[in-house]
Amino acid sequence: MQRANPLLTRLQTVLPKIAENAPLAEELRQAPQESIDLLKQVGLHKAFLPKAYGGYEISLPEFGDCIVALAGACASTAWAFSLLCTHNHQIGLFPKQAQDDMWKDDPDALASSSIAPFGKYLEADGGVMFTGDMRWSSGCDHAQWALCGFLRDNAEGKKDHCFALIPATDYTIDDDWQAAAMKGSGTKTLVIRDKFVPEHRIQKAKDMMEGKSGGFGLYPYSKIFYAPYRPYFASGFSAISLGIAERMLAVFKEATQGRIRAYTGAKVGTATPALLRIAESSHQVMAARAFLEKTWEDHAEYAEAHRYPDQAKLAEWRTNQAYVVKMCIEAVDRLFSSMGASHWYLDKEAQRLFRDSHVTGAHAYTDYDVCAQIFGREVMGLEPDPSLL
Which residue range or ranges hold the Acyl-CoA dehydrogenase C-terminal domain (predicted)? Predict the structure, then answer.
């Protein structure tokens, strides 16, 4: 869908350099500082920053288009930076005091995360003492804060999934990201030992999904903050998958048009198998984009109307995203499987796209085996299965 998007226009000016830096990102196992600086220079990190701190509060469709484009240049950088951006939406639902802690003196400050409830805590006067080896914190080398998950006992004797907002001065980074794909995302472990987190920097995940968090209503004219956090938090995964798939279409076309089979001299680019593969993958990727854009527009309409989605709509949004990822992975696989052995060399872009594509379907939020069960139960009128994430 064509839409005015000044941020995307600015972003496109720095994408060639970020693409050039993609091999370096893999070598460093984190996004190069130059790439991060370029993204900050065009203001991508302000996409979901509250306007009160100089942010843009752009719509989810506008943001999604930016991440698709960024992923086509470097999926690892897109993975890390999209999360650094989407966390701003989540923190915009925290109490004003927590937002001031993070942004009052440094509106460019970013937060990485480890939102799975790995953290341990002890109750303390005015907050908790937090400890944990918090894994999967993408982009943490470029963040000044972190959102960390833990399970906290409540008055009813149950446990609430909560998030603690913790400054980088309270943790160290364990450089343990040795991965086969998304190598440049810098998805490392945060090591936290007995650090105090005040109550205003702790929020329940459930409250942030239902308009009950400490920051609810802070921005009455906002078109993005009357919305549950999770669809915004997870929006980058499917956008990155789409960006990879769209880039793979271009790489396949370029590599195949002039390809000659070594033993027979046959022209691969005009042979029926190549034509069938590029045609089907092109249709699949176009369908994925249309489906994802429709879902993004749905998110935006709800947020602008200050309308919270019900359980059925949330299930639809989540599983739509996972199905888009499934389609994009299939499209990439169809192309890469016929590109020949030379594209398995590590200096070839196609093998990186193939590897990174599969990671987009490995996140808990985009695992289609899980999502198909969630949506199937919803369609059949069954109660949600709490064992499904």
Answer: 236-367
CATH superfamily assigned to domain 6-91: Acyl-CoA dehydrogenase/oxidase, N-terminal domain (1.10.540.10)
Q: DSSP letter at 49?
A: S
| Helical pair 60-73 and 272-304, crossing angle rounded to 10 deg | 150
* Spatial contact of 71 and 125, defined as CB atoms under 8 Å apart: no
One fold for 6-91 and 109-204: no
Cα–Cα distance between 211 and 193 in angstroms, integer? 32
Residue appearing with tokens 């020949």 = 340
By DSSP bridging, strand 111-124 and strand 145-153 are parallel
Beta strand 188-198 pairing with 127-137 = antiparallel
- CATH code of the domain occupying 234-379: 1.20.140.10
pTM to 2 decimal places: 0.97
Sign of the Cα torsion 48, 50, 51, 53 reads negative
Q: Does domain 109-204 have CATH number 2.40.110.10?
A: yes
The residues that bridge with 111 in the sheet, in sequence order, are 145
Could you list the pLDDT tens digit for every one of the 389 residues in the chain?
Answer: 567 899 999 999 999 999 999 999 999 999 999 999 999 999 999 999 999 999 999 999 999 999 999 999 999 999 999 999 999 999 999 999 999 999 999 999 999 999 999 999 999 999 999 999 999 999 999 999 999 999 999 999 999 999 999 999 999 999 999 999 999 999 999 999 999 999 999 999 999 999 999 999 999 999 999 999 999 999 999 999 999 999 999 999 999 988 777 777 778 778 888 999 999 999 999 999 999 999 999 999 999 999 999 999 999 999 999 999 999 999 999 999 999 999 999 999 999 999 999 999 999 999 999 999 999 999 999 999 988 87
